[in-house]
Structures are given as C-alpha cells and as structure tokens.
Amino acid sequence: MKDAVGWHVDVEFQEDSKRTRAAALVRLPDGSELRSHGYSSRHPSDGNQPRVGEEIAAARALNDLKEQLLTKAHDEIDGASGRTSYPIER
User: Fold this and answer.
1) pTM value?
2) InterPro entries attached here (predicted)?
3) Between 50 and 80, where is the model more confident?
4) Residue 57 is part of a domain; what is its CATH number?
5) CB contact at 8 A, 30 and 76
6) Three-state DSSP class for 39?
7) Residue 74 CB-density burial (10 A; 0-12 exposed, 13-18 middle, 19+ buried)
8) In the chain, at which end, N or C, are there fewer CB atoms within 10 A of the end residue's CB?
9) Does some domain include residue 1?
10) Tens digits of per-residue pLDDT, 5-29?
C-alpha cells in the first residue's frame, strides 16, 4: 500500500470596507507551487459581512487553482504519452 499524500492550501485575505482579496497557494509533492487570487466587492446597499466577502473571494481563488491543476495534469498526461490528449472535463 502506498503512503497517504496530503496537500495543504493556504488562503490569506486583505480587506477594506468595499473589497476583499484572497490569495491562495498550494505546494505540490513535485515541488511546484500554484498561486491564485480571487476578489469580491461589497455593494453599497449590502450590510457589512466580511465573512461573506471572504467566502466569495476564496471560492474564486480556489476555482482558479482548480483550473491550474487541471491544466498541469493535462500537460503531464500529454508529456508522458507523447500525444495530445482529450481535455479533462471541468
């Protein structure tokens, strides 16, 4: 049986009264790092709910990480097989 592998994703936030920025980072076992950003903006008529802004900004940053991981995996499949493979379903 192979050893279990775990990944840790770090997400940090910067906020002001109108906007939240999330920065996400994942370090992969092959030594590579993927970074992404996500943003959310508060409409002036919305109440001040920083957690909601963080959730939206983090979801957008993690969605970008998802796309990067799919692209990386797809490129590795192509590199190992020597041919162009079908796109990975998103």
Assistant:
1) 0.83
2) Rv2632c-like (IPR015057), Rv2632c-like_sf (IPR038070)
3) 80
4) 3.30.160.240
5) no
6) strand
7) middle
8) N
9) no
10) 789 999 999 999 889 999 999 999 8
